[in-house]
Specification:
The complex is a heterodimer of chains A (about 325) and B (about 350). With about 325 residues, chain A is mostly helical. Helix content of chain A is about 75%, strand content about 0%. Chain B has eleven helices and twelve strands. Chain B is globular, with a radius of gyration of 21 Å. Chain B starts with 7 loop residues before the first helix and ends in a 13-residue tail after the last strand. The chains are: A mainly alpha (about 325), B alpha/beta (about 350). Chain A: Keywords: Cell membrane, Membrane, Transmembrane, Transmembrane helix, Transport.
């Protein structure tokens, strides 16, 4: 892989981030709603401020947030802030900054979503590969079947079912929250166990419905790869079954799966909002949910922009990984 | 020309086999495909033998069983096909009596296969070297990595490839180079039998010639018996010393290449030879009348009888002709010939 390709990919990444920031900047300004006015309007209704004072307050706020300046100047200022990862202050949780809000909720989301996505991918890919491999034992090949049956059940439905049966009826696992009420987070084993108990159901609701998709795509690819001449020739060469499976069959069938993983990462956030909401986990999804309810525009746009950048970054990384997996990409 | 390094595996083989002893004997090999439409007998008691250093050309129309024969000898017939009986004896081992692991070990080591579609026969995500090394490692234990690598680069040199190919990927090679790599892999363990299934089918004529020359040279080098499968009679005439003609899953004639081209015995061989274009007597292109029979509904008696120019006598229709050895050692399976080699009209 040469420098030019790397440079081109990085440039593309910067372009994506720029485009996303620009959209995030201009969209709310197309709306007739004014977050500050709405917020102080509420205060005025409940708190008995005089309308004139509220107007003054709004004007000073506008000035503080730089909203009185010309649009283009605001835009340049905004781009500069983005570069410094400064998304401004949260309106509903002032004086927390948007960056603080994201930093606080991010570990929860990464812990749950990244782990479950990787587990689904690895599990589904292995099961799919085995399911398509005629020399694998029958019981192993049929392990994939229950997952295929669950394919496409949305995480929210799965989550409700799991909560009802395992959490509510059987009382095996807690109904929600990140950890038990009253426990102070510490670096202790008992806290870790408690934490994990709260993560099992959300994780299962994300994993169960998505493994089947990986199984199906991998199995389809596996069947195609088995018909390839090089797999046949590998057997003619007298290679052991394990070697053929790993180096000739799996390596080649894996290539489209990795592309699929890149695409799946984009939809992960959608699941986050729903599942974190359902289980009351303090992740990015919940933060976004709360921000939407509180008209906390800086947080909404900050999170949307952050997610866009994160996904663009992951895609770019994957673009660099892909040539390592497929030498034909390296050539072009 | 750099010769292949002698290796422990090769020297352990019974190298000093007497020249007259055949290195390959195929006896009554039978393969049936169990399809939804019925049973198709793709190989019907095929028998022949080859001595070390001999080159046999296997010709016949599409569907005559040439490739099935190659796959059956490698024991690579996949369901719904099944090897129903017979022996494939390489040296003194009957491949059909080996267990799966034994057969795996025999592939490439005793009997090597050079594939038909060499264009796609190499793994696109592995370096050529890795694909050669793993072939050796699957058969030879306890050899140092550098020794195996030397062996692989020597094999590349002996097929006229630059040793640098070792570090390349398949997509960086031309069609002819890929075919050479497949040949190099085929000779890595100095097998006593090499089967090349239409090794030149996807190549242009210049490359075809080079590849054939390469096969000839490496074959002479390791003194293997070679079976060359193809339907290019012209190429066969130059490359082999024995020709076998297959028709509807049976071996109908086998003789030296000279005898086959000057005096073919079986009416089907005669038709094949006379359908070759001739530069001296330009004229209407002559094909073989009729179509190759479906293996699902073979004609009774001699499978060739509906297309045979020698009439449809009762004998042809009812009795399958058994192979007879004519004086001089050539074999033919046709009612026109009896054990004495006399032609009875």
């Amino acid at each position: 892989m040469n420098i030019r390709i790397v440079a081109r990919r990085l440039l593309f990444f910067v372009l994506v981030v720029w485009a996303a920031s620009t959209i995030v900047f201009f969209i709310p300004r197309l709306s007739p709603r004014n977050a500050i006015r709405e917020r102080f309007g509420e205060l005025a209704r409940t708190g008995g401020f005089s309308p004139a004072d509220v107007e003054k307050l709004i004007a000073s706020m506008q000035q503080q947030f730089g909203l009185d300046k010309p649009l283009l100047e605001q835009y340049w200022q905004y781009l500069g802030n983005i570069l410094r990862m400064d998304f401004g202050y949260s309106l509903s949780r002032y004086p927390m900054t948007v960056t603080d809000v994201i930093a606080q909720s991010l570990p929860w989301t990464i812990g749950l979503l990244l782990v479950t996505t990787v587990i689904s991918f690895v599990l589904g890919t292995i099961l799919g590969a085995v399911a398509a491999w005629p020399k694998a034992p029958g019981w192993l090949r049929s392990t994939a079947t229950p997952f295929i049956l669950l394919t496409g059940v949305p995480p929210v439905i799965m989550g409700i079912l799991l909560l009802f049966f395992i959490g509510f009826r059987l009382k095996w696992l807690p109904l929600g929250g990140a950890y038990s009420v009253g426990i102070v987070p510490t670096w202790s084993w008992s806290f870790f166990i408690d934490l994990m108990e709260h993560q099992i159901l959300p994780a299962l609701s994300l994993i169960l419905g998505s493994v089947g998709g990986w199984v199906l795509s991998m199995r389809g690819m596996g069947i195609t790869i088995q018909g390839e001449d090089y797999v046949n020739f590998a057997e003619h060469k007298g290679l052991t079954g394990r070697r053929i499976f790993r180096d000739y069959y799996l390596r080649n069938a894996l290539l489209p799966q990795v592309t699929g993983l890149a695409l799946a990462l984009g939809t992960v956030v959608t699941s986050a909002v729903v599942v974190e909401g359902l289980f009351g986990l303090p992740g990015i999804g919940t933060a976004l949910n709360l921000a939407i309810r509180a008209n906390d525009f800086p947080v909404i746009y900050g999170i949307v922009l952050f997610i866009t950048i994160a996904i663009a970054l992951l895609m770019t990384l994957l673009e660099f990984v892909y040539p390592l997996l497929d030498p034909r990409i390296r050539a072009n | 020309m750099v010769s292949l390094v002698m290796n422990s595996a090769a020297s352990a083989k019974p190298a000093a086999m007497s020249a007259s002893q055949p290195v390959l004997r195929v006896n009554n090999l039978e393969v049936t495909y169990y399809t939804d439409l019925g049973r198709a007998k793709a190989l019907d008691s095929v028998s022949f033998s080859l001595k070390a250093g001999q080159k046999l050309g296997m010709v016949g129309e599409s569907g005559s069983g040439k490739s099935t024969l190659a796959l059956a000898m490698m024991r690579m017939i996949k369901p719904p096909g099944r090897i129903e009986g017979g022996e494939v004896i390489v040296g003194d081992t009957d491949l059909m009596s080996l267990n799966d692991e034994g057969m795996r070990a025999a592939r490439l080591d005793k009997i090597a296969y050079i594939p038909q579609g060499a264009m796609n026969s190499l793994n696109p995500v592995m370096r050529i070297g890795a694909q050669m090394m793993d072939a050796v490692k699957s058969h030879v234990r306890g050899e140092r990595g550098s020794a195996i690598e030397d062996r692989c680069t020597a094999a590349l040199r002996s097929v006229d490839l630059d040793p640098g190919v070792f570090r390349m990927y398949a997509h960086e090679l031309s069609g002819g180079m890929k075919q050479r790599v497949c040949i190099a892999i085929g000779i890595l363990l100095r097998p006593s039998v090499i089967i090349a299934d239409e090794p030149t089918s996807a190549l242009d004529v210049v490359t075809q010639r080079q590849v054939m020359e390469t096969i000839n040279r490496v074959q002479a080098e390791i003194n293997a018996a070679v079976i060359l499968i193809g339907h290019d009679m012209g190429l066969m005439a130059q490359a082999v010393d024995q020709v076998a003609v297959m028709y509807a899953g049976r071996l109908v004639e086998m003789s030296s290449v000279r005898e086959m081209f000057t005096d073919p015995k079986h009416p089907y061989s005669q038709a094949l030879i006379s359908s070759l274009p001739n530069l001296d007597t330009k004229g209407v292109f002559r094909g073989i009348p009729g179509l190759a029979p479906s293996l699902l509904r073979l004609p009774s008696g001699c499978a060739f009888h509906p297309r045979c120019p020698h009439g449809h006598e009762g004998l042809q229709r009812s009795v399958r002709p058994e192979p007879v050895t004519l004086p001089g050692g050539r074999m033919v399976a046709c009612h026109l010939y009896n054990e004495d080699g006399h032609r009875h009209e």
